[in-house]
Amino acid sequence: MSDRVATEFTGPHTFASDNYSGASPEILAALAAVNVGHDRAYGADSETQRLQTLVAEHFGTGATAFPVFNGTGANVVGLLSMLPPWGAVICSATAHIHTDEGGAPEKAGIKLLTVPTPDGKLTPELIATQAWGYGDEHRAQPLAVYLTQSSELGTLYTPEEIAAITQYSHAAGMRVYVDGARLANAAAALDLPLRAFTRDVGVDVVSFGGTKNGALGAEAIVVLDPQAATGLPYLRKHRMQLASKMRFVSAQLTALLTDELFLRNARAANAAAARLRAGVEAGLADGSIQGVTFTQPTQVNAVFATLPPGVADELRRDFHFYDWNSATGEVRWMCSFDTTDSDVDAFVAAIARSTTALAG
Amino acid sequence: MSDRVATEFTGPHTFASDNYSGASPEILAALAAVNVGHDRAYGADSETQRLQTLVAEHFGTGATAFPVFNGTGANVVGLLSMLPPWGAVICSATAHIHTDEGGAPEKAGIKLLTVPTPDGKLTPELIATQAWGYGDEHRAQPLAVYLTQSSELGTLYTPEEIAAITQYSHAAGMRVYVDGARLANAAAALDLPLRAFTRDVGVDVVSFGGTKNGALGAEAIVVLDPQAATGLPYLRKHRMQLASKMRFVSAQLTALLTDELFLRNARAANAAAARLRAGVEAGLADGSIQGVTFTQPTQVNAVFATLPPGVADELRRDFHFYDWNSATGEVRWMCSFDTTDSDVDAFVAAIARSTTALAG
Amino acid sequence: MSDRVATEFTGPHTFASDNYSGASPEILAALAAVNVGHDRAYGADSETQRLQTLVAEHFGTGATAFPVFNGTGANVVGLLSMLPPWGAVICSATAHIHTDEGGAPEKAGIKLLTVPTPDGKLTPELIATQAWGYGDEHRAQPLAVYLTQSSELGTLYTPEEIAAITQYSHAAGMRVYVDGARLANAAAALDLPLRAFTRDVGVDVVSFGGTKNGALGAEAIVVLDPQAATGLPYLRKHRMQLASKMRFVSAQLTALLTDELFLRNARAANAAAARLRAGVEAGLADGSIQGVTFTQPTQVNAVFATLPPGVADELRRDFHFYDWNSATGEVRWMCSFDTTDSDVDAFVAAIARSTTALAG
Amino acid sequence: MSDRVATEFTGPHTFASDNYSGASPEILAALAAVNVGHDRAYGADSETQRLQTLVAEHFGTGATAFPVFNGTGANVVGLLSMLPPWGAVICSATAHIHTDEGGAPEKAGIKLLTVPTPDGKLTPELIATQAWGYGDEHRAQPLAVYLTQSSELGTLYTPEEIAAITQYSHAAGMRVYVDGARLANAAAALDLPLRAFTRDVGVDVVSFGGTKNGALGAEAIVVLDPQAATGLPYLRKHRMQLASKMRFVSAQLTALLTDELFLRNARAANAAAARLRAGVEAGLADGSIQGVTFTQPTQVNAVFATLPPGVADELRRDFHFYDWNSATGEVRWMCSFDTTDSDVDAFVAAIARSTTALAG
């Protein structure tokens, strides 16, 4: 194993990102299971048809899936299908499409109208700050709203909050796209079916994320209101997101949607984050951990905290994680489907050692 | 198996495309082998580092690989890295980037200057018909040449032919990109190391194709002359071709480059096409097959032939393949790494039955 | 004047292009006439309203004009308004959008499907060679046809020819755009109202060219079928073709459309070309001109001819014109609205001197 | 005149925008003066050469001008010439390129990184909030800074302020572009040569605006550091900003740069705004005007003020101007080169009447 895992990791698991983890065994098994003989390419294969059936079961009759390679591809192609050329997208200032896609939306000609938020979540009032200028040719027209569920800051929209957004947005003439790179974590935390907080509350198009939840590399654009999206086969192809051996992408998604694997994986990741949070809180309570403050609620699989100076570096001798805001000392600890209790406990102990050592 | 393979296939293997086949067992095994614990994302993982080592072994010291998801992504991102914004690409009228990418190059702002060819292959003389207008702001500047090796018509460039092209092109101020979706088939047919007909003969950037040669979905942009390509990490990211769990893409490519799997697979596909060709030729010689003519030499894994009217439909009752030019009755028969001798023999027999039936 | 006109011109008029000429006095007068006080910007001014009235008179009730800065802007913005993102444009291989716009359509994401033609003119049969692949996501969808009237080769479509094209195209699901940079020359040559060979024969959108016909810089996208074009105000703005002081663009066009100035100018240019052609033909007949052959009919204001080697250089000592195909010695002689009889006669005499001298 | 000026204007001059005004007579005269015979197209004419000489005189030896049609075209093409494909632009949240170009930068693939400012002006500290993430492929790379001089809010950078910005930006690896749609107003207000607050303080590329300062429609991208800009002729052409009869664009700019017409016009506009401000301040002092507050200093030709509810509507019965922020009642009053003292005095009187009427 040593030639596969970077030597800086003393343990097999990190808190850097849920894309540092590998794949669930069920998903590797699914790849092997579909690896039988020949099948049509570009999505005309039978596994992709099975995926449609499963997607309709989970998201509602008529929901259709367009498998793509990654989250950025899902977001950009999904949004393109919902907008005329002069359409712009309202999103949070923390939106993945704005902060972490290298400018991919703009390369596809999409202007983003960003709104600062305290917790990464939009509301009708916040959206309204950008929902104006209709008919003014000097303003890119706000015609779609982009939400991330669960958000980049690990926070969660309730179904009611999403319903309020879709009602407001539709009334204003805008469609609603949900970036579901971590949709499963939301479903697990809300303990609701996928459709309950997407299709049933007015979301027009959602991405169902596999990669961050135990897949190797698989996402699907799921169209919930067929009136909302046009030309997806063409857009996906010419934006270079069309897999030829699509059965291998679809199989990852069907495996996730079979026997609730997507929920089991997400629950495990959420639980690990909850355990991590609880462990740190306990340490703060009994004094074994000092100087750590949380900057966001822990609702899914991410913990955002601020560390005293020097602690992050100390911790990184054994555990890998990202800075979120180096100016303030805010860090992000992400848990994956395979993060174990002992991983978490070891990390909590390390946090205790580091903060105590540096505190005094 | 019945729910995985379309029922119109009576045999497990088709002659439709080398992306109808599945994956080599070695490649699935490689995915399982890298599925150990956590590793850095976005290409900073150790498997991607191993890939660099293997790529340097095969393509020469200093050659660097940028894994991407599909051939269209490799072509467009590779070409973008070689061109200023006003650069255009000279290519054959049969070029995949022109005929089969849904306009993806144009969506990325790249203008193609196409040249008709008799056999899908460019030559310095043919390239010269478009290599003019330098300094004329009204003309998109021809600054790159795109070749496909082996070509869309299943034909092959010798190393000397490529050298002539690169010498001409470089002297004219153009860089040379080789679409290597079927590079392995060329290597197998030429019986030469990969570098012998790419790096060693002046090719600047080449894509190494895995998907059509037994991978699930993996291609790499390989930069042979670092002076030729700029900004690839950024271009790959904002053109949506950056895999987060890149180890799973790299592992497919390292598996192909280990123990010559890429050659074994390609030789098998080439041999199947040769057997198919020979079988049909034998049938034509002894009269058991009538009215079939070949439109291109069979140099790798594709056979292009013209069938008498009605024969394609008859054959399609049992075997799947594509029309190439319905006006003329030209069809394309593609062999994959897993096409067996009995697949081929059964197909030849069916061709005999169909042509005889309809002729008589 | 000497500091304004390049010293290589011994005469004030050239045969290089109809954009070498200046502006009709009526148009300068129109600019002065609208230069009164303040008026709304961006097309809400009263002169732009007058233009709409004149355009409706000439092109038919309901025809609407969108003034833009240049022909490339008209073409690209016009085509964008007629296409979904996956739409491609069928055009002649000599089309201005393909040969002379520096790749502007591709920069706007438009793929061109070119068709070789003998005389720069498309026909239903020629268009049909590219009108296929509908529904195939791998093929940019042919959804618009682009014609140039009068063509880049100075040839002319009859109304019947255009009607045949629009009928064919509409039946195939394609819209028809006419590049009218030299529309006036066509109207003059056909001796028909503008609507007779555009709106009345099914053209969906046409550009009305001013710049090549005595304006300073003014073109209008004219929408003939409102169903055919969507979002023009937005497209024009974000493609940077929206004039703030639009009255000064509109005034050039209203001046052209008033008292048939556009026809007077075009007739003059056409007549000059006819005179030039006749003069050369007479010279060929009486032997005073040798070795010149015409490559296209002279139907409007351009003469295309092949000159013996060395003659072009000799002629260029006094007269400026462009090579059209240096390999064959083909040149283009363009006449403008202000090309006089004596200009033409002097040129004919020079051609006689040059060809005779070099002939020996 | 009645058919040219919208009937809602009782006076010939408005306070809506400096693009509501017409053209200086000197500029119309310049158009007539260059309208002599034929001259080369696309900028090879002698008037464009004269422009280069004048630009070098005003901006420094080696400064080169690229005339374009409008400010949006200058900004986008100028920025494109300064950036690699992965480059992003740091700008104020009030930047014209962000608020008023319909998304044109994004259509050209440029991502904007916006910074809130109190007065429309950037500072090194403000720029630094976005000048990070270098080398991170997930972040569009901040490689240019965009300033507007004078700003969208009518505020002014001193040469020292610009020098601080260019020093900071260059040290951080970023080039500096100045949107000079109202550069002349800045020059007039600063009472400095154009080069003193552009070239001499490190600005790399600046647009010289004519349209808002008495031209019909003419702007020039002026390259001050040739190392900073690449490919402008190609970029201008394929972004559809290349005028064929360029002498008519250049003549407008040469006229402005001759005998300081650009300064005379700008001084007039600035003086009118100063008079307007002073008149309102006097009214506030003596009580004849009530409830009006200024939201920005009046440094050039714009006055930004907040009006009590209902006053704007009342005023608009006779005077045209724009709302700036309808939520707060903020309006913008722009003065043009042709705004007279009596225009201003009449407006001040109307303000007095409106505010008094509604207050009492």
Q: What is the strand content of chain A? A: 15-25%
Q: Could you say how many structural domains of chain A there are in total?
A: 2
Percent helix range of chain A: 25-40%
Distance between the termini of chain A: 38 Å
Low-confidence stretches of chain A: 1-11
SS-based class of chain A: alpha/beta
Please describe the biggest sheet of chain A, giving its number of strands, its sense, and whether it closes into a barrel: 7 strands, mixed
Question: If you had to describe this structure to a student in words, what would you say it looks like?
Answer:
Chains A, B, C, D: Its cofactor is pyridoxal 5'-phosphate. Four copies of one chain form a homotetramer. Chain A has helices spanning 25-34, 46-59, 71-82, 96-99, 104-107, 124-128, 159-171, 183-190, 232-238, 247-257, 261-286, 311-315, 341-359, and strands at residues 64-68, 87-92, 111-115, 141-148, 175-179, 205-209, 219-223, 293-294, 302-306, 322-325, 330-334. By secondary structure, chain A is of the alpha/beta class. Chain A folds into two domains: 13-18 and 263-359, Alpha-Beta Complex (Aspartate Aminotransferase, domain 1), CATH 3.90.1150; 25-258, Aspartate Aminotransferase, domain 2 (3-Layer(aba) Sandwich). Chains A and B meet through α1, α2, α3, α9 and α10 of A and α1, α2, α3, α9 and α10 of B.
